[in-house]
Amino acid sequence: MRRVAGRFVISQDERGTFRFALVANNGQTLAVGEGYPSKAACVNGIETVRRNAPEAAIDDQAPAAL
Fold first, then answer.
1. What is the CATH classification number for the domain harbouring 3?
2. How far is CA 63 from the centre of its chain?
3. Tens digit of pLDDT for each residue in 28-66?
4. What is the pTM of this model?
5. Once rounded to an integer, what is the mean pLDDT over residues 6-28?
6. pLDDT at res. 47
7. Residues 55, 60: Cα–Cα separation, whole Å
8. Secondary structure of the chain in the HEC alphabet?
9. Any idea where the DUF1508 domain is (predicted)?
10. Would you say residue 24 has pLDDT above 60?
């Protein structure tokens, strides 16, 4: 049986926009999406992350540690 890596949780904020969070099996929030005007747009955002994340490179633009 394949183990599920986590889940996407969709919620609606106080302004009425929809957001998603990627939550690990241990309950830790790993990522949060922007506010979307509709639930359908939010689901589309989730699908975009699903398609692109496995091959996404890390672009580290942070200053070097002191």
1. 3.30.160.160
2. 25
3. 999 999 999 999 999 999 999 988 887 788 888 999 876
4. 0.77
5. 94
6. 94
7. 16
8. CCCCCEEEEEEECCCCCEEEEEEECCCCEEEECCCECCHHHHHHHHHHHHHHHHHCCCCCCCCCCC
9. 13-60
10. yes
Q: Which residue has the tokens 């699908």?
A: 47
Task: Note whether residue 56 is domain-resident.
Answer: no
CA distances from residue 33 to 3, 30, 53, 58, 64 in whole angstroms, order as listed = 24, 10, 13, 18, 27
How many residues in total does the chain contain?
66
Q: One-letter amino acid identity for 23?
A: V
Q: Domain containing 34: what range?
A: 1-38
Asked if the structure places residue 22 within a domain, the reply is yes
Structural domain total, the chain: 1
Torsion of CA 34, 38, 40, 41, to 10 degrees: -40
Burial class (CB in 10 A: 0-12, 13-18, 19+), 23: middle
